[in-house]
Amino acid sequence: MSVYTASTTAPVNIATLKYWGKRDKTLNLPTNSSISVTLAQDDLRTLTSVATSKSFSEDQLWLNGKLESLESERTQHCLQDLRNLRAKLESGDSSLPPMSTWKLHIVSENNFPTAAGLASSAAGFAALVVAIAKLYQLPESASEISKIARKGSGSACRSVFGGYVAWEMGSEADGSDSKAVEVAPQSHWPEMKAAILVVSAAKKDTPSTSGMQHTVTTSDLFQQRIHNVVPQRFEEMKKSIQDRDFDLFAELTMRDSNSFHATCLDSYPPIFYMNDTSRQIVKLCHQINEFFNKTIVAYTFDAGPNAVLYYLQENETKLMAFIHQVFQRNSGWESKFSKQDLAAFDSYFAN
Ligand code: DP6
User: Atom of ligand 1 at shortest distance to CA of 19?
Assistant: First the structure.
């Protein structure tokens, strides 16, 4: 009996303009548009392979080598949407094998350690949906497919693309215009780099899904954010990417991280994602930019204490010198600095 297979990878994306709040929980429709920068495919990604055959007796998922349940409503939503599109295709072409009625076997693996503290649901759902769309040979565009991934996890819609991605919130009640679109490919601004500073690998204490709804229902500041801050920032950030304007991109990214965490603090009772080390990193980034009299680094924090730093390749050594100086000299970076650099950093921190 024939077995049909397909594979794909989906990258981890980190929001530089945060999605925080749903206007529809079932369809995962957001209260604001968001933007992310996708980490390079070979760095952090999920690899998913899918197979289908008339002989399979149940849908099964192996996640990082372990058999996992496919029962969640979100996953079922995605599978149903994909099967419906396939059924539509089959109804117009009787030569196609009737895969829409067959069971699926799914094998998914992350190439990044859980200890990196990164949410894997975005890359995971994106890879799952794209792999099945490939298997079913669906003709829909990546933006159309992103709407299905969105139902798995909101941020997953952005991982359907690489590079710089916007998730347009849309206004339709059925979510038909709430989709990811490419702002620019990675090749548009290849000098952009990201570093993750792992502050804690512990599981977050307030998951994003419940945390954001808590903010929606209890924070006053949240209304200000979604109505008066994000719409303009969304346009400005897209432009900063199109213009490769790092100064502006960095400022908007840092401001948006701060604004999102402020709404978490303004929730009642408050939600704390950042800790003392996270705050030390924020301060350090501002000190670094001040020291060089130029914006060379931007920080952003998701629903946890770990920092993602964005910077341009040309400033990597300078930046790492500072980080290393503050967080111990044990990373092997000292060999990359000139004596002059090290002396300058030492005197800066001595003051
Ligand atoms: C802080 O996409 O994980 O990372 O839609 O409920 O699955 P669900 O939430 P999720 O939330 C991500 C929140 C964030 C910001 C972002 O990625 O935009």
Answer: 18
